[in-house]
Amino acid sequence: MSQRVNEINTVIESIPDVKIVKPFEQSKIDIEGCITVFVEGLEQPLEFNVTIHPQYPFKSHETETIKFSNDDLIEHKHIMQNGAICIHTAHTPVLSQKLIYDIESTKAWIKKYYINKDSDTHYEHLIVPQKAFKQNHFAYFFNEVDYTFQKNQFGFVDYSIMNNGVFHKENIQSSIFQSFLDKDRKKIVDVDWNFQLKNIPQSTGLFIFLKDAPSKNQRWVFDNWKDFETTLPQDFLKFLHSVEERLAKDEGKTLPLFVGYNISETEIHWQAIILEIGNFPIYGEKINKHWLTKIEEDKVINWAMTRNCSYQYFFGRGKLSDQITESKILIIGIGAIGSILAKTLVRCGCRKLGFIEYDVKEPENVCRSEYSFFTGITNKTNDLINELCLISPFFEPINGGYDYSEAFDFFIKSHLADSGIKSEMEKHLEDYDIIIDCTADNDLLYVLSQLKIKSTLLNFSISNHAKHLVCASEQNRYDFITSQFSGNILDFDVEDLHNPTGCWSPTFKASYNDINVLVQTAIKQINLKLEQKKTLRNFVIETDDTTSFNINIKEF
């Protein structure tokens, strides 16, 4: 017997209320044994088969490498279909200590889920096997819709294939729901995504809303079509038969069936089944001179992956304050600062953005902005909108993302004295809740300062070598910015600028990392003030990397 096996047996024997029924032994790969565990409240101890993997006491891809299993317990919460209970314990590299932690976690599971029969407040999704169908995986993304489905309602789903990728070592195809249609293909409701996603070519699948989850013990999804025998109505089975007849020429091809059910009073989840045309799990049977469509015996269900990509889940891990994400935002100038700002806002939950930018993207813009080399020379606005649509399915460019990009600079600077045109410009800009000027154009800064608009107007400017970011948010924006940069308040190098080839104005030197640190810090500062419902004041972010990196925010 190995030293490792000896240690496991010795440690477990020493743990109170735990007894070894079958001593631990080395199998071909794992170490296996059987124990009983007693906690107060039990009439008799519970027995567990224990499997310890070679990686133990370390986890494997965030999964514990010790399994406590009992097939008789599968009706309880937090237990897998193979009878293994779900435990998550603290890290330790010491095998003996990890065994103690894991046994204590098992005792905690017994108390909470076996004795007290607790239910967690958050919903636990059904356990769905992740298996390939003919060497291919399928994933479908859905979004909540403003429609109430009725029990056993069925019809068609139009969906679009987004991408063919790799899932570990196998192929995977990812698609999105586009719209629900009734059995006569009359549209019921559209699924909302950004305009690029809505323009992808569409294919057709099927749906049925069952209301109740297709599950055993509210834990595991059905694994055999016979499990649906008392669930699927005859009308739907006949519908399946008619669809398969119409698609006879496509025999062998796949067809997704989406099964919907409530996981709360208001929320629906959809699971996907992959059907093979010409091999549907149904057959006809004549009973009392009437043909009925029946479900075949012993037909395994081929489940696919689904993900709820509704806004609250898509940004569930973190978003900015609602005061930002619910705003219509205009960014003027989408170079290094503006493009980083735009991409951050979209990643953090903002949906409605407009842009003013006359310039095109050149190859040298890529190194410190949010653009790609692959798209070559193109309008910055077009390029950025494409990038943002790839990030968030909820991004919606206002007015197509363009706001007088060519004419804006001319009109606002040449008609400042024209009260009528000035009023029109003010009215147009007030369509936005937040306007952020990232142009580093002092002329534009001055002109914007002369306008009377209710929108929150901000100005972002960065000094050479990204030593400072100045954010002006108050009525004295012009005076504040010019005094910081031209009044020798900020101490930075004004000589060592980047001079591109050709007759171009020099620009400040800074890497993508330098600029990003400042822009992200500024967004953090603004978001914090809004969350705290405090007045947003002018501020300067100053960095110092002479000995070690330091960052400081000074409000004015």
Q: In one word, what is the shape?
A: globular
> How many strand units?
26
**Range of helix content:** 10-25%
Q: What percentage of amino acids are in beta strands?
A: 25-35%
The spatial strand order of the largest sheet comes to: 21-18-17-22-23-24-25-26
What is the CA-atom radius of gyration, in angstroms?
31 Å
The largest pleated sheet is described as: 8 strands, mixed
InterPro entries: ThiF_NAD_FAD-bd, Ubiquitin-activating_enz
Protein name: ThiF family protein
Domain THIF-type NAD/FAD binding fold: 321-451
In short:
Helices cover 25% and strands 29% of the residues. The chain has 556 residues and is an alpha/beta fold. The strands form 6 sheets. An 8-stranded mixed beta sheet has the order 21-18-17-22-23-24-25-26, with helices on both faces.
